[in-house]
Task: structure prediction
Amino acid sequence: MAHPNYRLYFAGSLISNVGTWMQRVAQDWLVLTIPGNGGAALGITTGLQFLPVLLLSPYAGVVADRFSKRRLLQVTQAVMALSALLLGVIAATGSAQTWHVYVIAFVFGIGAAFDAPARQAFVSEMVGTDDVANAVSLNSAAFNSARLIGPGLAGLLIGVGGGGMRATGWVILANAVSYLAVIYQLRRMDPAELHSPKAAARTPGMLREGVAYLRGQPKMLMILVLVFFVGTFGMNFQITSALMATEEFGKGAEEYGILGSFLAIGSLTGALVAAGRSQVRLRLLVGAAVVFGVLEVVAGLVPSYLTFVLVCPLLGFSVITVLNSCNALLQIESAPALRGRVMAIYMTIVMGGTPLGAPFIGWVGEQYGARWTLILGGLLVLVGVGLAVLVLRSRSATTLRTTEPRAAMLPS
Result:
């Protein structure tokens, strides 16, 4: 918070994140209010929203390294604001159909695909390398503070509005307005105070250069394997919480919103604890991932809505510890000129896995019940932890073998 530009960014993002979480609840509820929709439609909507991340993020990382991230973020925020505005108007007029939601979710995802790597890499430009870990944790605290407020507020507003399609539309429109806060704060920043690296010149093979760089970093490869399993199979809370609330426990929009708020209590606590750490260790990262996988299995087995609510903060704490540790380690260890591409590949995996996992998890919910969406997701996360550790050991051994002969030739 000693950096003026970061203070501006933090304030704007906090407001926008509240709107984002309100829309997440409202969009899911909108899908479920359209006749004939269930877990599969919910999974397809989530998948389409994150599909552009899978397809475009690597190229978005190249764009982030070539252009001013501050200006790029203003454009991406405007695209997402217009998408939310269109969906909100359609829903508020009571004319929303499933295909409307699918198309707009995909367009929204295009904006998010170019926004994510630029936003992640912009953190180090605002605060410098020494304060990256602290800034990442504070960003997460802002995101999860909003997560604490947004879902409950959305559920309350939807309930007050009658619980139908029109009520969800007004909540989504509120999110469209919230993007203006980020755009306004970005425009107020002092470019002279940013630690911006020299923009990379356009050259052939820029994306391949980023991939080749990551292949030579065993620790980074281990992180990417781990977040693939966590993001693809574990972080489908939009689907799992909605299905558990409605199908398993027979609850409504307000109770569904409460689940998101209790997840945020744990996530916010985890982010604030992380802000006090001076360094991030791999042992912490692996341990948190194991705990997260076990807790997901437990969440799928709990007997009542109340016990499910009580497990949610623990899920939030463990998963945010994993994500914050991964994010900070990658930013600290990556070369500044390649940071946009590194974070783009990271975001491709952690968010881009959702189009693969969300429809699968939604199908599991329809075929085998809501509980299996959590049980299977947790088990796959644990499999991913094991594979990630194996990748770290094998790649580290390979790197050691290739460097030892060279080291032996150097004078002592």
In short: The longest helix spans residues 370-409. The radius of gyration is 21 Å. The chain has 15 helices and no strands. The CA atoms of residues 31 and 98 lie 7 Å apart.
